[in-house]
Amino acid sequence: MEGQNCNCFNRKEGRDYRLEEVYRKSLVILPTLMAQSEKEAALAAIPVDGDAPTIFDKIVNKEIPSTIVYEDDKVLAFRDISPQGPTHILVIPKVRDGLTGLSKAEERHVEILGRLLYVAKLVAKQEKLDDGYRVVINDGKNGCQSVYHIHVHVIGGRQMNWPPG
């Protein structure tokens, strides 16, 4: 095997430390590249008018496939197609009811907002994110919101960085 003569390969452990270093660096670089494309998507996003369906409405109606990890009568949770961590789940209300973003919340939305956060906790437990996770709600263009249907990101499976943005 090519690396056996290199100090980077440990024959006893069968490990190539060069590959491990590349992997560790990719955990830093890939999220940055993905975050850049998320920012571009958010800047290109157009807030929906009235009842125009969003991609999330189409996922709720099963018009677009998704990997659903949780569903009840009010909320749907599914894997993000552009994950920012080993685990990245979106939790959405099944009915938008004018709640396109957190800044649009009214007192009538209190129950569904609480339900979204509670389901975020259930999903994190189901995904075995026992060492912690991040819950994010992006709001508006500057908040990097790319779909105007309120949604909660549950991100985990790796050490999060601070500050986040």
Automatic annotation (TrEMBL):
Domain HIT stretches: 55-165
InterPro entries assigned: Histidine_triad_CS, Histidine_triad_HIT, HIT-like, HIT-like_sf
Active-site residues per Swiss-Prot or TrEMBL entry: 151 (tele-amp-histidine intermediate)
SUPFAM superfamilies associated with the record: HIT-like (SSF54197)
GO molecular function, one term: adenylylsulfatase activity
Motif Histidine triad motif, residue numbers: 149-153
Coiled-coil features, chain-numbered ranges: none
Domain of life: Eukaryota
Identification of the protein by name: Histidine triad nucleotide-binding protein
Gene source species: Rhynchospora pubera
